[in-house]
Amino acid sequence: MNETVARMLHELAELTELKEGSAQAFRVRAYENAARAVENLDRDVSEMTEKELVAVKGIGESIASKIREFVETGHIAKLDELRAEYPPEFVELLHVPGLGPKRVQALRDELGVQSVEGLRHAIEAGALRDLPGFGEKTEQNLAKAIERLGMSGKEVRRPIADVLPVATAIVEGLEGLGKAAVYAGSLRRFRETIGDVDVLVAAADHRPVVERFATLPDIAEVRAGGETKVTASTSTGLQVDLRVVDPDQFGAALAYFTGSKAHNIRMRQLAIDRGWMLNEYGLFDGDRVVAAKTEQDIYEALGLEFVPPPMREDTGEIERAARHDLPTVVELEDLRGDLHVHTDWSGDGRATLEEMLHGAKERGYAYVAITDHGKNLRVNGLSEERMLEQRAEIEKLRERFAPMVILHGSELNIGTDGSLDYDDDFLAGFDWCVAGVHDHFDLPKEQQTERLIAAMRHPAVRAIAHPFGRIIGRRPPIELDVEAVLAAAVETRTALEINSHLQRLDLPAEVARRAVNEGVRIIISSDAHAVHELGNVGYGVQHAQRGWVPKQAVLNAQAGPPSERSERWGEGTAAP
Ligand code: DGT
Ligand code: CA
Ligand code: CA
């Protein structure tokens, strides 16, 4: 329940900002703080009284009563009111880089723009260049942003970070009504963007499932309903398809609705080659059921190795699975440490050093690197002095957390010329540093590439954090000569990160796949700023599977902490 409540509070913040602008900035902040507080609670809000809620730091009386309202009724009247005033297509305008509440309002009031698609038309008609506060340059920038992020067009896809929490809440709301409730489709394959959510429930009796589904807090409207198949949409306009299936046919339905369509077509052809038939009800030889109950049964009956869902895109996995030669992709249990973690020593961290170390220890890690921001990050970087203080603090904690090894490092900022935050002597004092681009995302390709490679050449830089700097659907990737970057990573033995933050998932999967083929080392990091975010590596792992990343290529899947510069990972063994 906490995640759902936090999501509602974030939405309240966003819509309040849209409506009131800076006049109500304190209220916006209050919603944001409360959302954070709820995310970090270790109790479920549904079990807390209003009084207990108010006692939580960051939650005031008015918000506590809204949380109780939501727990009791599944609605927040204030939120419903704001949603009616600002429909989801309109709110999406806020996510166009360069647009804020003020500009969005102006677009609506002056030009009648109601959606990103509407904005695109207005730009094409040249309507923005004479609008006060906009101008020709802004018009061009907005056009470019919309195009690069693929925000408009017939098929609207949403960033996975916006969809996964909703889908998870829906699936949780359906638990206990049958044998299993899961999401399938592109979400289970962990695509970066999602068209719609496909939910499957295995239950003999479909009625209670369909009834419960319609009452879930996230479901706003049921658009088309059959006995076992319902299409609905959420309060933010996301489509959700529900199917209730016979438990004996669950595996067949799961395989079918997980897709991808291209993967399914190949599977069905394999069945036909054997004189069988494959559909969402099972694998059949005439009337005889060959397999239906589990996905494993179906893959096995077709002579295939089981294919992890993120790999089901028909990019070679069928052939490899038929030869029983799929690469053994990294799994969550393989991770032995986390090499990119923040604390409240830099201003954006929300947990203390000790809390983060506890969290790492509880995950059973053999090692963890504390990598707070380098001093050039103006808002919250650490001076040399503070870094040394932190190092002394870590020294004191080492024994307590043994045998977990604590590395002291930093997330360095790569300057436009590839320079780093501290002088070489100081940098040499760290155990492990990652370095990332945090500004000047618009440099031309050549300069951006040189910048990254220059940083890789520095001996203190052991990995490049979130190499493309993208925020999925919000900020396009920086332009890089991928081939040159991968070659430099091999040459300098610098690892490339898969940042697990759901909005980043950076390296992109297709680049990760190329990287491991070249022998580049990968780290899968949480980039956690709070204890619960250490668990985000679960996302990073699924994303890595989409990039066919094998365990051996992952530096933090190795037993001990990285001590020296690592070998090219594939040396002496065949590439996956
Ligand atoms: P999305 O929603 O665009 O992000 O992507 P998916 O993959 O979730 O696509 P969706 O929701 O249209 O369909 C869910 C799954 O159902 C899809 O991955 C495979 C299966 N499916 C849908 N249409 C077809 C079809 O025409 N043929 C086959 N073989 N499978 C299909
Ligand atoms: Ca879908
Ligand atoms: Ca669908």
Radius of gyration over C-alpha positions, nearest whole angstrom: 25 Å
Helix content: 40-55%
- Give me the CATH fold name of the largest domain: TIM Barrel
CATH superfamily of the largest domain: Metal-dependent hydrolases
Basic shape: globular
| Helix count, DSSP H or I runs of 4 or more residues | 23
Q: Structural class of the helix and strand makeup?
A: alpha/beta
Cα(first) to Cα(last) distance is 41 Å
- How does CATH name the architecture of the largest domain? Alpha-Beta Barrel
What is the topology, as strand order, of the major beta sheet?
11-12-13-14-15-16-17
- How many domains make up the 3D coordinates? 5
How large a portion of the residues is in β-strands, by DSSP E? 5-15%
Ligands and ions found: 2'-deoxyguanosine-5'-triphosphate, calcium ion
Low-confidence stretches: 571-576
How many runs of DSSP E, i.e. beta strands? 17
Output mean pLDDT. 94
CATH class of the largest domain: Alpha Beta
Q: Biggest sheet, open or closed, and with what strands and sense?
A: 7 strands, parallel
Describe the structure.
- By secondary structure, the protein is of the alpha/beta class.
- It has five domains: 85 residues, Orthogonal Bundle (DNA polymerase, domain 1); 60 residues, 5' to 3' exonuclease, C-terminal subdomain (DNA polymerase, domain 1, Orthogonal Bundle); 84 residues, 2-Layer Sandwich (Beta Polymerase, domain 2); 81 residues, Beta Polymerase, domain 3, CATH 3.30.210.10; 238 residues, Alpha-Beta Barrel (TIM Barrel).
- Helices cover 41% and strands 15% of the residues.
- The protein has 23 helices and 17 strands.
- The strands form four sheets. It has a seven-stranded parallel β-sheet with strand order 11-12-13-14-15-16-17. A five-stranded mixed β-sheet has the order 2-4-7-6-5, sandwiched between helices.
- β13, α19 and β14 form a beta-alpha-beta unit.
- α1 runs antiparallel to α2, α1 packs across α5 and α21 packs across α22.
- The longest helix is centred in the N-terminal third of the chain and has 19 residues.
- It is globular.
- The C terminus is likely disordered.
- One calcium ion binds next to loops.
